[in-house]
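Sample log: DNA starvation/stationary phase protection protein.
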Amino acid sequence: MEVNIGISKEQRKEIADGLSKVLADSYMLYLKTHNYHWNVTGEHFHSLHEQFEEQYTELAEAIDEIAERIRSLGYRAPGSFREFKEITSIEEDTDHDIKAMEMVRRIAVDNETVLRTARQAVPACDEAGDEASLDLLTQRLDVHSKTAWMLRSHLE
């Protein structure tokens, strides 16, 4: 059945492509944050362990919302690690001996990366009058800017 939500097929495709990039960045950030939650050590272990858990839990919910929005636009949401790796702007972390504050620095940078990716998707939503996608992106901008600020505050 053809999608008929008042947004052209071309506009829906452009929005879905932008959201797919946000989804891939969010998923890679989720994996990295979960990894750090498991492997953080040192004097800030307890607070960072809990902070990372809050962050990856929030990201897990956001990933689902982003994918469902892509589907509601009539497009397939990427869902494999290979697909995510192809479109993400966030580098996979394969280091095994990372100090706690370096973990904090890396995911602060990655939260800012998600912010930039989300900002790039906003104009297409605005031009198409896609308030639902725009609202979703606005929420992501708020969460990632606050998270980046909180993480940067550890480094001062």
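Observation: Helices lie at 9-39, 45-72, 81-87, 100-128, 131-154.
Observation: The chain has a mean pLDDT of 96.
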